[in-house]
């Protein structure tokens, strides 16, 4: 495989020309010129109400209702664009799924959730409260004896939670704090086999792919998942979210959220009350075209594009984790929050805390970067509230963790600059 051409990738992002080091990409990525062009093209040339028969409306409908879901289906490997729905955020999309499922949930049903970003936790907790269902939590456990914060989700902790009453299982494909990839296919296969053996009649699985989609290619068919969601503003596109709903689940379990006279029983559109931002929906096609451009012509295969992304991202995560887990840093009290070892299951979203007698608050670490300027990193709980709250009594929830999150357009030089500043912070 040819080496990943980071300069070629960066040339698509006008904002990177400023030289600012974007290290908060798990919060939101930069957008390509192609995305910006499509937003203005839509607004300047086809900004009319969809569904009419005049030529401009025909084109706006094609862009927003055909081209956008057809292209997004590629990023999910969905069988049909009818399984894709857009909403302004992944939080809203998952809340909509939970509301549409309400009629198919009964008292005593069990939901298994994780302590991850609240978007794929809160809607299930609220649904459980409305219907008298029971919540169980699949907990991340430390992978290193030396570091109680080296948390990772393992199948071994999930299966004992499965019973004949298990109805919903909701987890993240990649944590926005821990930065490690959950083996989604293996988890779902083990879960479904176990649920079947225990006699659970109907289990539906919801996977939050928001922190996964910038780094790896989703495959809903291979994963055998019912609901999957990600936000394009983290995948080099505009502020809009795409949700996948398996066609059979759509028909069997979900009640439409749209007006009673709209006949959308068999498409994911039944989960879309009101229209999303059509210019954004159309502009997502620019993000996908960009990702395809990273793979060699003529196939422009997304699998190859993401293989290149993953390979380059390893060159970013290796030095950063290597520095943070060096014995000198460990002695200083630095603790990575998440899996410590780089590898194919680790993306360059790296969180840490500084504990011990010479504790440094996360706020103060980030403050040094902010005062210097030119680099954007962040501290906090990043809406993975329960995960951070339960880390340790020593960690205050509002102070949380320091998170440095790179993507494929970041360079090794940028990572080294961040490491140089961290060295000074830890030496002080
Ligand atoms: C893992 C994860 N899930 C869900 C979300 C929520 O996405 P949205 O802002 O589109 O609701 C985020 C946002 O940070 C996230 O990181």
Draw up the topology in text:
Layout: H1 6-10, E1 21-22, H2 33-45, H3 55-76, E2 84-87, H4 90-101, E3 110-114, H5 122-131, E4 134-138, E5 141-144, E6 147-152, H6 155-158, E7 166-172, H7 184-198, E8 204-208, H8 220-223, E9 227-231, E10 241-245, H9 247-253, H10 278-293, H11 302-324, H12 327-332, E11 334-337, E12 349-354, H13 362-372, E13 375-376, E14 378-380, H14 385-389, E15 401-405, H15 412-427
Parallel strand pairs: 1-13, 3-4, 3-7, 7-8, 8-9
Antiparallel strand pairs: 2-10, 5-6, 9-10, 11-12, 12-15, 14-15
Helix pairs in contact: 2-10, 3-10, 4-5, 11-15
Bound molecules: pyridoxal-5'-phosphate (PLP).
Question: How would you describe what is shown here?
Answer:
- With 428 residues, this protein is an alpha/beta fold.
- The protein has two domains: 153 residues, Aspartate Aminotransferase, domain 1; 249 residues, Type I PLP-dependent aspartate aminotransferase-like (Major domain) (Aspartate Aminotransferase, domain 2), CATH 3.40.640.
- 39% of the residues lie in helices and 16% in strands.
- It contains 15 helices and 15 strands.
- The strands form four sheets. Strands 2-10-9-8-7-3-4 form a seven-stranded mixed beta sheet, with helices on both faces.
- Helix 4 runs parallel beside helix 5.
- The longest helix is centred in the C-terminal third of the chain and has 23 residues.
- The two termini are 43 Å apart.
- The mean pLDDT is 97.
- Bound molecules: pyridoxal-5'-phosphate.
- Pyridoxal-5'-phosphate binds next to helix 4.
CATH topology category name of the largest domain: Aspartate Aminotransferase, domain 2
One letter per element, helices H and strands E, the order comes to HEHHEHEHEEEHEHEHEEHHHHEEHEEHEH
Total domain count: 2
Identify the CATH architecture of the largest domain: 3-Layer(aba) Sandwich
CATH class of the largest domain: Alpha Beta
Shape field = globular
Strand order in space, largest sheet = 2-10-9-8-7-3-4
Mean pLDDT, to the nearest integer, reads 97
Oligomer: single chain
Q: What is the CATH superfamily of the largest domain?
A: Type I PLP-dependent aspartate aminotransferase-like (Major domain)
């Amino acid at each position: 495989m040819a080496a990943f051409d980071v300069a070629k990738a960066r040339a698509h992002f006008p904002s990177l020309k400023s030289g600012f080091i974007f290290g908060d990409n798990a919060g939101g990525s930069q957008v390509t010129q192609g995305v910006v062009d499509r937003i203005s093209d839509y607004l300047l040339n086809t900004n009319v109400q969809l569904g009419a028969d005049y030529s401009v409306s025909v084109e706006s409908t094609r862009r927003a209702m055909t081209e956008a879901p057809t292209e997004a289906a590629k990023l999910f490997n969905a069988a049909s664009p009818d399984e894709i729905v857009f909403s302004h955020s992944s939080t809203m999309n998952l809340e909509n799924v939970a509301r549409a499922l309400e009629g198919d949930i009964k008292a005593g049903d069990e939901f298994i959730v994780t302590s991850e970003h609240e978007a794929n936790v809160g809607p299930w907790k609220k649904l459980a409260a409305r219907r008298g269902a029971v919540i169980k939590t699949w907990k991340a456990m430390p992978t290193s004896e030396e570091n109680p914060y080296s948390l990772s989700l393992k199948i071994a902790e999930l299966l004992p939670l499965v019973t004949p009453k298990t109805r919903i299982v909701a987890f993240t494909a990649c944590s926005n704090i821990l930065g490690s990839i959950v083996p989604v296919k293996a988890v779902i296969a083990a879960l479904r086999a176990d649920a079947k053996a225990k006699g659970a009649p109907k289990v539906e699985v919801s996977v939050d792919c928001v922190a996964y989609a910038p780094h790896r290619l989703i495959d809903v068919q291979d994963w055998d998942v019912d609901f999957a969601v990600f936000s394009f503003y983290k995948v080099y596109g505009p502020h809009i979210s795409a949700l996948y709903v398996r066609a059979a689940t759509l028909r069997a379990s979900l009640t439409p959220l749209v007006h009673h006279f709209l006949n959308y029983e068999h498409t994911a559109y039944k989960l879309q009350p009101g229209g999303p931002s059509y210019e954004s929906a159309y502009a997502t096609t620019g993000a996908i075209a960009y990702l395809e451009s990273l793979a060699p012509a003529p196939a422009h295969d997304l699998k190859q594009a993401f293989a290149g992304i993953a390979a380059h991202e390893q060159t970013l995560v290796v030095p950063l984790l290597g520095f943070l887990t060096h014995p000198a840093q460990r002695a200083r009290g630095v603790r990575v929050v998440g899996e410590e070892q780089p590898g194919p299951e680790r993306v360059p979203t790296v969180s840490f805390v500084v504990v011990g007698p010479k504790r440094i608050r996360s706020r103060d670490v980030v403050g040094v970067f902010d005062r210097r300027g030119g680099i954007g990193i962040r501290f906090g709980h990043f809406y993975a509230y329960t995960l951070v709250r339960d880390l340790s009594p020593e960690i205050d929830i509002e102070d949380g963790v320091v998170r440095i999150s790179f993507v494929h357009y970041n360079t090794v030089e940028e990572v080294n600059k961040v490491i140089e500043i961290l060295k000074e912070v830890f030496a002080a």
